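Entry 14. Two folds queued back to back today. First construct below, sequence then structure tokens.
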Amino acid sequence: MTAGDEKPPMVGHAVDGIEEFDNPLPGWWVWIFWATIVFSLGYWAYYEHGPGPSVIADYETDVRAAAERAPTPAAETAMSDEAVGALARDGAAMTKARETYEAKCAMCHGPQGQGLIGPNLTDEYWLHGNRPTDLVRTITDGVVDKGMIPWKGQLPPPEIAALAAYIGTLVGSNPPNPKAPQGDKLGAWRAASR
């Protein structure tokens, strides 16, 4: 019998007439397999029953870190009526706010605030509060049921406050073809913003 005529070792059983060769796995593969089993047992003991942090503890740590990086709601809403009024007297802030208004608000409220789809912003009647900070909140949170999106994710709080101040300067401007008044009479807005 020559080297080419040798039959490879067989397992010793056949299925449907097919015999199975006895081909053991390479030694390095078997060692890696047993090493992963030993590692998984150590990993399980360390994290489930030992000093290792649990998945929930890791999650809570990540949530705390994200909360520390995020601005606090109090910092976003710390704007007062007087601060919005002061912004209305800042020429540079009003120039930037006018650009923001033209880019984001004019399509619904009209280029002069006269109202189109959205309400008229130049009369003394308002739908969502009668204070400058009410307008800051309305811009920030939006009025989704009326079609106004919340701008808090797209504009930073100082820009929203400046936009509210700019809208306050539109009150009493009497543009052509204003939309009919809606809501309640404004009250203290003009005194706070001028």
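Second construct, same run, same settings:
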Amino acid sequence: RTLALAARLAGHALRGQRLRLLTIEVTKRCNARCEFCDYWREPPGPELEDYAPIVRRFAPLVVTFSGGEPLVRRDFAELVRRVRAADPTVYLSMVTNGALLTLERARELRAAGIDQLSISLDYPDERHDRARGIPGLAARIRGLLGPLAGVGFDAVSLNTVVKNDNLERIPAIMELAREAGVHVGFSAYCTIKKTGRDDLLVADANRERLREAVRLIKDAKRRHRITRSSDYYLDRLEEYFAGAGIAGCEAGIRFAQVTPAGRIKPCSELPEVCDWRDYDPRAAAPVSCTSCWYSCRGEAQAPVTWRRVRELLG
């Protein structure tokens, strides 16, 4: 599959297509009540029964299933099976809050075709329960990590949002991952969502703590291969939180979002542009937004070097 993905990348270059990552939001429904997101307040909207034609049309390198919470859809494993049958090459990942995840369901998802399972964890203790509005969630995730590592996924990863109040807890999250034999991916908190809270942005007074957290993450990456987050991404966290605004976003060009109903958005926070059948990423205009430093955006800008390729494959 690595060779097949490399061949697909070469084909993209020949056709002038730069779209690499397609995020499919299979639902906006969610069982969490996160302090920075209001999806759970929104009325349910239409959801497609099959996203395989969309993946077949764009032939990305990576598809990430997200929500809302993907696992609230009882047919989620079937959605994955259809995409995998339509495209045996594409790398399939998913992001879940973990509350509905069981070992049995994880095995079902792996059999359906999921390669990487990412579980959100911003704090290693009960603070995560309060932030996500789900009692007992952190303990549930801690209990699942070890068994999940043996299911056979290419990678099991914690997905940690870097915030003003969890910098000192990042080493504990990394140690939890190391002991369980899983990875950690990092993404910067931002206030672009409707309920975004400014107090969760890393404050100027915490800038040195942020530098130390980044140093520890990079050291753990070298020593234990605990994260696939790029140095390029990590090194710009301070710049982002300082309010500089990082230019060069390639939303809609290198990555794009599919809504539950099959509409295309350049990214999760930008307006819909058209139905998936009418979208051509080769004709997409660059965006001028500098409002976030989400990993999906920042990692898409990371230079492709041999070292970076080894990190992603390792």
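Quick look at the second one. The mean pLDDT is 93. The first helix runs from residue 2 to 15.
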